[in-house]
Each structure stands twice: as C-alpha cells, then as structure tokens.
C-alpha cells in the first residue's frame, strides 16, 4: 500500500465531492421521475481564494423548470 501525500488526499476528497454531487442529483431523480425531463445539474467552476489557490469545493445547484 502506498501512502498518499497531501495532493493525493486532496484529489481523492475533491473527486469524492463530485461523486456525492452526482449521487444527490440521481437520488432526487429516482425519487421524483417526473423531474427527469425538467431538472438540470449545474456545477460551478472552481473559485480562487484571495491567495490565488483553488478552493477545492464543488459548488452545485439543481434547477427545476429553469
């Protein structure tokens, strides 16, 4: 087993956030099939902190009917 450095851990966490985003969206659609043609998943691009670093947070919204 290989130990992950800070970058590897951060990359895993960031990827996990994307997986959670998709899971929330798909769960909503599974529980409300009438929303399938009307719902949109919007994922915002990364924002930069004041020091110019990416904030590594996945910001998303689920729009229904625009």
What would you note in describing this structure?
The chain is an alpha+beta fold and 66 residues long. Helices cover 39% and strands 15% of the residues. It is built from 1 helix and 2 strands. The chain has one helix at residues 6-31; strands spanning 39-43, 60-64.
The number of helical runs is: 1
Helix proportion: 25-40%
User: Main sheet?
Assistant: 2 strands, antiparallel
Shape: elongated
- The computed structural class is alpha+beta
Number of strand elements: 2
Poorly predicted regions are none
| Average of per-residue pLDDT values | 79
Q: What percent strand? A: 15-25%
**Rg calculated over all Cα atoms:** 15 Å
Q: Strands of the biggest beta sheet: in what spatial order? A: 1-2
What is the helix/strand order?
HEE
Distance between the termini: 47 Å
Keywords:
15% strand, single chain, two-stranded antiparallel sheet, alpha+beta, 66 residues
Give a short synopsis of this structure:
The chain is α+β, with helices and mostly antiparallel strands and 66 residues long. The chain has one helix at 6-31; strands at 39-43, 60-64.
Please specify the SSE layout and strand pairing.
Elements (H helix, E strand, L loop, with lengths): L5 H26 L7 E5 L16 E5 L2
Antiparallel strand pairs: 1-2
């Amino acid at each position: 087993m290989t130990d992950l450095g800070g970058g590897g851990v951060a990359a895993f966490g960031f990827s996990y956030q994307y997986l959670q985003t998709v899971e929330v969206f798909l769960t909503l659609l599974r529980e409300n099939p009438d929303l399938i043609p009307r719902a949109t998943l919007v994922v915002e691009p990364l924002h930069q902190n004041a020091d110019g670093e990416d904030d590594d947070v996945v910001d998303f919204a689920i729009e229904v009917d625009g």
